[in-house]
Design goal:
alpha/beta, globular, binds flavin-adenine dinucleotide
């Protein structure tokens, strides 16, 4: 199988660097082909701007979505964007690995998503009508591929527990798991999260890499998070709301997975 690791940490000798190197070796030893997009090493350009569409006409206003649509449809995207899309098409599984920075991904990785997820590639896919609101949330360009987050946090696991002060980790990662990964069609696996990283030492690193290794060994067999598919009948379209008779009275991010 082909695995793409999109990796965002500025320091190769960091904990994230060590875990990424471990993952590459574990996957290659199991016979998989691995490519790494090491965003800091690549000096990835994070901001979206007019240079992302090499056909952008200077006398016209830059429009992030419409320029993206034009560039994707006409082959005028900048080379770095097209190269990352080719890697995504090649991959059977994608791992996004990053330290949690301010309750989200580092800006360089967000900029990878903003630029690589072009209109027509990751969104704006499929028929949009009153009956069908596009191929998204379980359908789309990434359908049939698996994705998983590998995330490190400074906070403790209790800080991210059901009543933890930081909020539950599943809620914090929901915009990435559900929004960035499920939206274009990935089957999203439960994240691998390492908490309280300041307490890492060699013994704990051995335990952590063992646990990560098991998750990588089970990349193809782990049950994905059972997010509800937009076009499978659970949602009212075009409103995009969960049907009233499903989990009546319940709200929040958890309702979007089958409980
Ligand atoms: P490192 O700092 O490289 O390492 C962590 C520890 O692991 C160190 O003690 C190091 O010695 C040890 N280590 C490294 N490699 C090995 C190895 N091979 N074997 C054994 N030990 C090793 N945390 C939150 O919880 N929520 C937030 O919102 C948040 N926001 C942040 C925002 C910013 C801008 C920053 C800088 C930090 C933030 N943090 C937050 C903390 C951040 O998530 C952690 O610092 C990060 O996850 C640690 O990962 P690292 O790869 O940088 O670890």
């Amino acid at each position: 199988m082909n695995v793409l690791i999109v990796y965002a940490h500025p320091e190769p000798t960091s904990l994230n660097g060590a875990l990424k190197d471990f993952s590459v070796k574990r996957l290659e030893d199991a016979g998989h082909t691995v490519r790494v997009s090491d965003l800091y090493a690549m000096k990835w350009k994070a901001p979206v701007d007019a240079s992302d569409n090499t056909d952008h006409q200077p006398e016209t206003a830059f429009h992030a979505s419409l320029d993206s649509k034009h560039a994707y449809a006409n082959g005028t995207q900048s080379d770095d964007i097209a190269a990352e899309q080719e890697k995504l098409k090649w991959a059977d599984a994608v791992i996004l690995q990053f330290p949690l920075w301010w309750f989200s991904m580092p800006a360089i990785l967000k900029g990878w998503v903003d630029r690589v997820y072009a209109y027509g590639f990751a969104y704006g896919v499929g028929e949009h009508s009153d009956e069908r609101w596009g191929d998204r949330y379980g359908e789309g360009s990434m359908a049939g591929k698996r994705a998983m987050l590998v995330v490190t946090t400074g906070g403790w696991d209790t800080h991210y527990g059901p009543r933890g002060i930081n909020g539950p980790i599943d809620d914090i990662l929901f915009p990435i798991n559900h929004g960035v990964l499920f939206y274009p069609g990935f089957d999203v696996l439960p994240p691998f999260v390492v908490h309280r990283t300041s307490k890492m030492d060699e013994a704990r690193f051995a335990q952590t890499s063992d646990a990560l290794g098991r998750r990588l060994d089970e990349l193809w067999s782990t049950r994905p998070i059972p997010y509800r598919r937009q076009n499978a009948g659970d949602y009212v379209i075009p409103e995009g709301t969960l049907r009233e008779d499903i989990l009546p009275g319940r709200t929040g991010t958890a309702v979007h997975a089958v409980m």
